[in-house]
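Exercise 7.
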Amino acid sequence: MPYREGIGVTLKGLFGGEAVYKKIWEQRKQRSPRRSAGAPGLNCLVLGGGGREYAIAWRLANCNSVTTIDAVPGNAGLSLFTRVIDQSPDNVSWLDEHVLASFIDLAIVGTDELVAAGIGDALRRSGIAVVGPSKDASKVEWSKSFAKEIMAEAGVATARSESFADAGAAKDALARWDAPVVVKADGLALGKGVTIARTLEEAIEILASPPANSGRVLLEEVLEGDEVSLQALVDGETVVALPPARDHKRARDGDTGPNTGGMGAFSPTAVLPDDQAQAVADTVIAPVAAVLAKRGTPYRGVLYAGLMRTADGWKVLEYNARFGDPEAEVTLPRIEGDFAKLLLALGEGRLAEYVAAEPIRFNKRAYVDVVLCAENYPGPPKTGMAVLGLDRMPENVLAFHGATKRNATGAVVVGGGRVMHIVASGDSIAEARDRAYAGAERVTFEGKFYRSDIAQQEVAVA
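Solution. The predicted structure, written as tokens, is:
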């Protein structure tokens, strides 16, 4: 590994203990903050390679304060405006080297797996601003049982539930539950760990199948009402709401078929208007942030609450410890101002000070995201097919890449299940929706499918 002038030590052999991180802190103080060699501005690192990470990088690229963006491992589309690095984003020793050698100022941990693996902790030891909670704080996502415990302590309304060590114990307890009942895998399941069983017999089948049969599991009452997604920037006990959105989790029209990571989304929504977002966040997110801080595991990152507006008020379905996907695709374009500076303030622990001087603002544009999926998704998808039509997007329509990659000739091909996010804007949800579907028709690949009813319920009540 070469010697870098101004660093004063060789990189080789440097990484492996707290002394290393102390040295990095010292070295960073000796150079002008947030300056790369030859260029002013922020050097950013986005970890992940889906539509959410594309949306994050795209929003950063529209900030005057940003000089460079690295995406790890990225996707075919991100290579158009970021430096895509073919490296595993959970390779901590490589991340340490990269942060130092590339003068990274701001890192955003995109995916739930990376958050749960503690990548945010590792990056923070390098002395940079990190948007992504600690492994301990992010347990509100990767353990549904823990989230219920925190909600109870915080006094946050949620569905009645029971937690069991395994599926067998849950099966034995079904006798005291009435159908329908929600079956939840306790850990991460890529958005596919929650199933509503319409009968107790169906619940038994779910408990015998992955992911419910692989560890701790919850039984939960079914809540009736309107579901909405509310993301917030959380810095200790400072909570700043982002634009609310609604998503579509089932694979097929009419909310039928298996659960997915998300088939589409839209923002704003009449279910939770923008001007009510902060008040709701103060009720369902701020108390949880306060409990985590009290426990000595303060949260610093994006905390996203899946909510249900019931006849008895707002109730929390779940928490996610990062930006939502596909929620990010329709909410980040609505955030005005310098998004990178906002995230930098969050990552450096000065969010309250920043928003006091620069209050967060949402634009009035409506955004709709229609997700184009590969054949057999959410099962093992068929991959490798050419993606065509990306150069024929209508006006006010963007193609945010998800699971795409480039083949040996450089062509864009299908690389996974949720291939492309067609994100359109308009003066209304109806206008944005029409544009999104026009764009969805222009992109082609073998086996492509998508839902035809994204945002339909919002248009119907408008």
